[in-house]
Amino acid sequence: TVTRREDYVAPAWLVPEIALDFDLSPGETRVRAELSVERNGDSSGPLRLDGDALVPAAVRVDGADAEWRMEDGALLIDLPGDSHRVETEVVIAPERNTQLMGLYASGGNLCTQCEAQGFRRITFFPDRPDVLTRYRVRMAADKARYPVLLSNGDPVGSGELENGRHWAEWHDPYPKPSYLFALVAGDLAANRATFTTQSGREVTLAIWVRERDLPKTDHALESLKRAMAWDEQVYGREYDLDVFNIVAVDDFNFGAMENKGLNIFNSRYILADPDTATDHDYDAIAAVVAHEYFHNWSGNRITCRDWFQLSLKEGFTVYRDQKFSADQGSAAVKRIEDVRTLRAAQFPEDAGPLAHPVRPDSYIEISNFYTATIYNKGAELIGMMATILGPEKFRAATDLYFTRFDGTAATCEDFVACMEEAGGIDLTQFRLWYSQAGTPRVTASVTHEAGSGRAALNLRQGVPPTPGQPDKAPMLLPLKVKLFGAESGREIAPEQLVLLSDSEAEIAFEGVGERPVASINRGFSAPVIVETDRSAADLGFLSGHDDDPFARYEAMQQLMLDTLVESVARGRGDHAPVIDAVRHTLHDPDLDKAFIAEAVLLPSDSFVGDQMPVVDPEAIFRAREALRRDLGRELEADWREAYEAARANRFEYSPAAKGARRLKNVALGYINASGAPDAASLAFVQFESADNMTDRQGALATLASGTSEKRVAALDIFYNRYSDNALVLDKWFTTQALSSRDDTPQAVEALAKHKDFSLANPNRARSLIGAFSMNQRAFHHDSGSGYRFVADQIIALDKLNPQTAAKLLPPLGRWRRFDENRGERMRSELERIVATPGLSKDVFEQASKSLD
Ligand code: ARG
Ligand code: ZN
Fold it and tell me: Which residues form the Peptidase M1 alanyl aminopeptidase Ig-like fold domain (predicted)?
C-alpha cells in the first residue's frame, strides 16, 4: 500500500506522557506501556496504536479491561471522552530480531533502532513523528550479563532485584516522537569527558563500547566536543541535558541514530586507531558524530511533521556536518569530496527509475527514502539558500527557525518560509527544488565581438523528465560565474552570483578586449550538470589558474572526462593536454598536497559511464587504464618525487599529514600504472612498513588490482593480522571486491562462501556485495554473472533484513543505461526478484519501480 503526502491528517489522539517498563531478556522481553492519551482538539475516531508483529497480552483503559480490535497490525480502541490512561502489555524476542529494527541483540548486548517505524515493533503506540511524548523508562535485566542500562534523558534511579537482576529508570524531560526512543542494556565500558556549554551547563559525555575497544574511542570523543563547541559558535545552539551518551554496536542498518541523549552508532563510525582506521575513517567518524549531535536541534528539538519532510532534518543536518568538517581542515578539499559523493550517489539516482523529489509525494516503505536525494541533494538546497541570502541573513533565518518551531513537528515549507522572512526575499520559484526531481542541466557558452568589446555569457537550463514528472518548469539556479582572458589569463569580470530563473538568459559584459573564458558554477554553487563548449586548452588554463579551488578541480575533471569520452568513442584519444595539466598541478607551489591529490585523480569508471548515452564498461575501463598508464609513464619521475616528498616519519592525524598520505597513495597508484618493474615491491614495502591503515590499505589496494605474486602474500598477511577485527576484515573484503583484475567476479563469488562472510551483519554484507556492485567493470561483466550473484544475495538477505537488502538493489535498477544484452540480463534478475514468494515491501518497492 502506498502512503501519500497529500493524505496527511493530524492525529486524532495525542500522547503527552508514557511510562514504559521493560523486563529484559534476549529470548523473551516483556514490555508494559502506560499511555496518557488526549483527544486532539475536536477530532473524532478511535485511538490507533501502531504495531508490527505484536500480539497484545493485555489491554486496559483507565484500569479496566477494554474492548479492542486489530487492523494491519495496529491496535484500535474506541474511546469516549477526551482523556484516558491506556495500558498494554506485549512480549517480544530481541534475539530473534534479524531485521535490526525495534529491540534487537548485537554482540551479546541489547539495543534499539526505531527510526523510522521500529518503535511499533516494541510496543503499541501512535508511531508517527507528529505525536510528541514525555518518556519515563524503567528497565530490569540480569546484572551480570547487562550491567549497564541506558535510555534517553537523565538517569533518575536504580537498584537491585532478586535473582541477580537489577533495574534502572530514566526520564527524558523533552517531549519527543517515538522514533527517537532508545534503550541499551549491555556489558559496556565508557570513555568519559565533560563539556561546559556556553551558558555554563556541565554535561557528562560518555562513549560506551566493549571494554577492549576503549582505546579506540578518543577520536570520537574529541570530535563530539568539537561539534558541541562549533554548534554554539556557528548556530548559537547549546546542548540541553546533563548527560550525552553514545553507544557503539556492530550490527546496525545505517551509520548512526540521533536518539535524544542516547545516540546509537554503527561501530565503524566510532572506533579508530592509526593501526586499524584510515584517514577517511577518521574523517567519517568526526562527520557522523557531529551529524548525530547536530540533530539534537535540527531533528530532535524540531522534528518532522511526517516522513515526507525527512529532508527537513536530514538535508539541513548534512549541510551542518559538511560545514563543520570544512572548518576542521581544508574547506576546498571537503567541497570536492562532497561534490564527488553527490555525483557518484545522487546524480545517478536522479537519472534513474528511483528518482524522487527532495520532498517525495508517496512511498511504499519509508526506509527506502533514506537516500542521497533526501540527504545530499537536500543539503545542497540548504546551501543554495545560504548562498542566496548571504551569511548574516542565513544565520538570522536559522535563528528564526529554531525559535519559532522549537518543540514542534515542522515541515520543509516552514523552513523555507523562515528563509524568506529573515532574508526579505521571495523563494516561490526556489520551492521547485523540493518538488521537482531530476538534475537540472545548464548549457553555457560565451560570445565575444573583438571590435566592440562586447561579450555575453549565454545560459540555458532544463530539467529532464523523471518517473511521474514528464514536464518540468525552469528552476531558480544560483550560479557563481567569472570571466578570465584567454590570452592574458587575467580576470575580465569579477565573480558574480547569477540567479538564473528563466529557461534562457544572457549576461552581458562591456569592454572585453580579449576572448573570454568562463568559470562557471564556482564552488559548485548549484547542484546541476553544466555543459560548456570550452576547449581542452581553455580547461587546461583554468585548471592551472582559476582562483576558485573548486573551479580548478572542476576544470581538470572536465578535461579528463572529455578526453576519456573521446577515447571511448574513437578508440583512442589525445592524452597530452591532461598530462600537461597534471604536470602543472603537481608542481604548483601554491597548492597543498591534499588538493593536488584530488585534482590529479581520474574520474571513476562509473562517472565516465554517466556521461555516455549507452555505458560500455569494458571500453571505459580500457580508455581509463590507457590514460592512467600514460600519465604514469610520462610523469614517472614526477610521481616518484611526489611519493618521496610525501613520506613521513611518524603517523599524525592532521590536515597536512592526511594530505601527504593521500598524495603518496595516488602517486603510488600512478607509478604502478606506469608498469615500472619495481612498482609492486614499492607497494609491498609500503604495505609492510606502514605505521597506519591509510598507507597499509593504500598499498594493499594497489597490489590487489595487480598480477604480482606479492598480491596473495599481502592479502594473507593482512587477513591474519586483522582476523579478529571485524571492521578491518570488512576492508579486506572490499579491497578485493573493488579490484580491477579480470577474475574479480569469480573471486567475489568465492569470497561470499568464505567462513568470515555473513549476510547477517550489514557492514559485512555491504563490504562485499555493495562494494562489488560499485565495481563497474566486474559487476557489469557481459556474461551477466554479476547480476545473478547480486540478485541471489538480495533474495537471501531479504529473508533476514529487508532494509539492508533493499539498499543493495539500485545498481541492478540501472538497466536502461546499458546495451541490450546487459540491460536484458539485469531486467530478468529484477523480474526474478519481484517474483520471489514472501518478498518484503522494501525490496518489492525498489525492484518493481526499477522495472516500470
Ligand atoms: N536519522 C539517522 C541519521 O541520519 C538515520 C536513520 C536511518 N533509519 C532508517 N530506518 N532508514 O543519522
Ligand atoms: Zn541524520
Answer: 438-532
The confidence score (pLDDT) of residue 648 equals 79
Ligand 1 atom closest to 256 (CA):
12
**How far does the centroid of ligand 1 lie from the alpha carbon of residue 639, in Å?**
42
Q: What does the block give as the cell for 678?
A: 619495481
Cell numbers at residue 103, please? Answer: 529491540
Sign of CA dihedral 529, 535, 538, 543: positive
* Spatial separation of the C-alpha atoms in residues 136 and 153, rounded to whole Å: 9
Distance, in Å, from the CA atom of 460 to the CA atom of 456, rounded to the nearest integer, reads: 13
Distance (angstroms) between ligand 1 centre and the Cα of 13 equals: 26
CA-nearest of 278, 279, 246 to 261 is: 246
The protein residue with its alpha carbon nearest to ligand 1, atom 5, reads: 257
250-267 residues labelled b (16+ CB within 10 A) or e (exposed)? bbbbbebbbbbbbbbbbb
| Ligand 1 probe mutation, 52, 313, 314, 370, most atoms within 8 A of CB | 370
What 3-state class would DSSP assign to 261?
coil
Residue nearest to atom 11 of ligand 1 (CA): 367
Which atom of ligand 1 sits closest to the CA of residue 317? 4
Nearest CA to ligand 1 atom 3: 257
Q: Looking at the CA of residue 291, tell me the nearest atom of ligand 1.
A: 12
Distance CA 565, CA 614 (A): 12
| pLDDT value of residue 391 | 98
Q: Atom 2 (ligand 1): residue with closest C-alpha?
A: 257
Residue 699: other Cβ atoms inside 10 A: 27
- Going by CA atoms, what residue is nearest to atom 8 of ligand 1? 115
Closest listed ligand to the CA of 263 = 1
- DSSP three-state, residue 101: coil
Q: How confident is the model at residue 647, as a pLDDT?
A: 87
Per residue in 786-806, pLDDT (tens digit) is 999 999 999 999 999 999 999
What is Dmax (Cα atoms) for the chain?
96
* Alpha-carbon separation of residue 840 from 367, 477, 798, 800, 827 (angstroms): 12, 39, 7, 10, 19
**What are the CA-CA distances from residue 797 to residues 253, 608, 700, 762 (Å)?**
12, 31, 29, 10
Choosing from 52, 99, 115, 319 the residue with most ligand 1 atoms within 8 A of its CB, the one to mutate for a pocket test is 115
Query: How many angstroms separate the CA atoms of 814 and 318, rounded?
Result: 26
Q: How far is the CA of 291 from the centre of ligand 2 (A)?
A: 6
DSSP annotation string for 641-701: HHHHHT--SS---SHHHHHHHHHHHHHHHHHHHTT-TTHHHHHHHHHHH-SSHHHHHHHHH
C-beta separation of 671 from 698 below 8 A: no
Ligand 1 pocket list (CB less than 6 A) = 115-116, 254-258, 291-292, 314, 367, 370
Spans in the chain with pLDDT lower than 50 = none
pLDDT tens digits, 621-631: 999 999 999 99
Ligand nearest to the CA of 318: 2
| Contact between 152 and 180 (Cβ < 8 Å) | yes
From ligand 2's centre to the CA of 790, what distance in Å?
Answer: 28
Helix (H, G, I), strand (E, B) or coil at 635: coil
pTM of structure: 0.99
- Interface confidence, given as ipTM, is 0.97
Is the distance from CB of 759 to CB of 793 less than 8 angstroms?
yes
127 C-alpha to center of ligand 2: Å?
19
Contact in structure between 435 and 411 (CB atoms under 8 Å):
no
The residue whose CA is least distant from atom 1 of ligand 1 is 257
Contact assessment for residue 483 and residue 491, using Cβ atoms and an 8 Å cutoff: yes
167 vs 22, 140, 148, 204, 229, CA distance in Å? Answer: 9, 4, 10, 21, 34
Confidence at residue 649, expressed as pLDDT on a 0 to 100 scale: 78
Q: Which residue, chain included where needed, has cell 567476479? A: 745
Residue 106: its H or E element: strand 102-106
Catalytically annotated residues = 292
